[in-house]
Specification:
The structure is a homodimer. Chain A has about 180 residues and is mainly alpha-helical. Chain A contains 7 helices and 3 strands. The structure holds a DNA duplex (30 and 30 nucleotides).
DNA sequence: TAGATATTTCAGAAATTACCGAAAGCAGGA
DNA sequence: TCCTGCTTTCGGTAATTTCTGAAATATCTA
């Protein structure tokens, strides 16, 4: 597939950014390519376009499937697998959030729980330190619980909630004026 | 400072996790140490405890200050700088969120905006591809705007909002039963 | 101002992570 | 069953990131 300059720049930037999002560069570029292409592409065409090894594409596709960001499809008369990107951005964001929670929050929670259960066997730790570990565990757990509650909301409800957020910000915090413009940092 | 087994495990796990959070391992360990210590520590004591080079501590502390996760303090009769961790977890989470937005969202938005402005000079790109770029830009911009609106809410309002989230989930989505237990994956 | 201690900077070493290409593994069709 | 086209795995290499130790800088005391 031939990329126009803007498309190329889109793909390259996604690659850059992807690495800050927990995807690696190639994985992110492949997603970007599929997103911008808007049609199913086979692995070899992806490799051609991005100038990376086929094997690398294969691995990356595997990862994208784990994130559920792309889907396998088939074309009649072609037994190669083709892949399309998830184009609904709410879904995309949700998938990324889900995977990141799984990688970033859940293991932390587990580790903290283990710390708390080991506390009784540790006579070298102070009461206050234990309290701080407990506080962190509790905090993460409630954040995690909240996330799980809203995770499955349909998009429309989520939008409602976001509007409510804005309202809460404006009505219930009279000390702050509602902003008309974004503040600079 | 002597670490008890549980404290050590806490610090090590934070180190592991920190790297998934955008901090590097040492930076995260230092934060964890300061958090668990619950009192100001000087740089050399940190280096001793974690067995890392003093210079490394210096660099990491600089980064933690950029994240605003620690603060410099002084003890009378000691001219060394001491450092304490931010112990309020809401604040901690907010700081991490802020920095991540700055690193992950803002540059992406800028790149997308650049793509859109370059579109007129690119005759090789299709209308639908442009529409997809525009969609992504719009999505990120509104998410970013929402974040900015709730960012400055005091903790109490945020908690209100979270409760509202739960309510919206339960009352307005009658198709889904409210869960009593977490699902397994 | 000298002398001592504390802190930062920086170039290279060490460790981690991503990538490639060769070869093995797996299906569907003859 | 074998053949054919594709996918996956794996060992080695390249690139990137993190860490260190030495030197430079800054700050306090006398």
């Amino acid at each position: 597939m031939e990329l126009s300059p803007v498309m190329e720049s889109f793909v390259l930037h996604w690659g850059e950014m992807g690495s800050r999002w927990g995807l690696n560069r190639t994985v992110a570029q492949i997603y970007a390519l599929l997103y911008i292409a808007g049609r199913p592409l086979p692995a070899d065409e992806i490799a051609d376009t991005l100038k990376v090894a086929r094997s690398n594409v294969s691995t990356s596709i595997r990862e994208l499937q784990a994130w559920e960001l792309i889907e396998r499809t088939h074309e009649i008369g072609d037994r190669r697998d083709h892949f399309v990107a998830e184009t609904d951005l709410w879904t995309m964001a949700a998938r990324i959030a889900e995977e990141r929670k799984r990688r970033e929050i859940d293991p932390t929670l587990a580790a903290l729980a283990r710390c708390l259960s080991d506390v009784r066997m540790d006579d070298g730790i102070g009461k206050d330190a234990v309290a701080r570990i407990r506080a962190m565990h509790g905090f993460l757990e409630s954040a995690s619980g909240w996330y799980e509650e809203i995770r499955d909301l349909p998009q429309s409800k989520l939008e409602t909630l976001m509007k409510m957020g804005a309202k809460v910000a404006r009505l219930e915090a009279p000390g702050k004026k509602p902003k008309k413009k974004k503040g600079k940092r």
